[in-house]
Design a protein that fits this description.
about 250 residues, Thiol Ester Dehydrase, Chain A, ten-stranded antiparallel sheet, 3 helices
């Protein structure tokens, strides 16, 4: 019997729940990131490079960069389908793309991501050739954003501080990627106003923070352009983000 090959692309449908939306009933930025990383993790497991397979070899994935472009925001109760595929290595980064569609099949967002493979013991990047399985190249599929250029370190005023709690950490013991996206949305929200809608957001994850560390978040808006960053207690840049608001 011929051995079945894992699918080169993966499709997964999510229904937007109340807790995944803001007070306008629209999908929160953190929930967009949740959907993306959930679909990516499930596809990685199918391909033999998921959490369990890597853990057996003392390895782990970390998200380094993600660029999300949003055309339309889904509301409570709406179904969102995420299609995702890996599409090659660039230096130490493994790239993965995403296309999101609504219930009518129309495209509502696209995204690109870059991931690092780390040694779980030393938390240092290792060569992607150490992966336990080969990834499909998907050369014929779209590659939405290059993610080659580092975001500039912004000079922004501090807006708030947050103490990282254990429930905010992921399975690697670090502040979850989606939590960072939530901080960006919080920072972009003016007191007494509704959360802004994002047209484009690129978020770079630079150094991990853990409970009970204190994270200082700052941001500045100029027209529709918004810059944001977070620093740990030692003053090191933990993340930075550049966004275009609707």
């Amino acid at each position: 019997m011929k051995e079945l090959q894992p699918p080169p692309t993966h499709r997964e449908t999510f229904r937007v729940r109340c807790r995944e939306t803001d007070r306008n009933g629209l999908l929160k930025l953190s929930s967009w990131f949740d959907f993306l990383q959930e679909a990516a993790a499930n596809h990685a497991a199918q391909l033999g490079v998921g959490l369990e397979a890597l853990s057996e070899r003392g390895l782990l994935w970390v998200l380094s960069r993600l660029h999300l472009s949003i055309r339309r925001y889904p509301a409570i109760g709406e179904s969102v389908t995420v299609e995702t595929w890996p599409n090659g290595f660039r230096r130490l980064f493994a790239h993965r793309q995403f296309r999101l569609t609504g219930e009518d099949g129309g495209e509502i967002a696209v995204a690109s991501s870059a991931w690092l493979l780390l040694s779980a013991e030393k938390l240092r990047p290792v060569r992607l050739e150490q992966l336990p399985a080969a990834l499909p190249p998907n050369a014929e599929k779209p590659d939405y954003f290059p993610l080659e250029t580092k975001l500039p370190e912004p000079e922004v005023p501090a807006r708030f501080q947050i103490r990282v709690r254990p429930t905010m950490e992921d399975v690697n013991g670090h502040l979850n990627n989606a939590e960072y996206a939530g901080l960006v949305q919080d920072c972009a929200t003016e007191p007494g106003e509704s959360s802004p809608r994002f047209r484009e957001v690129e978020l770079h994850f630079l150094s991990a923070v853990r409970a009970p560390e204190l994270l200082t978040v700052g941001g500045i808006r100029s027209g529709s352009r918004f810059l944001c960053c977070g620093r740990n207690e030692a003053g090191q840049l933990s993340f930075n983000a550049a966004a275009e608001l609707q």
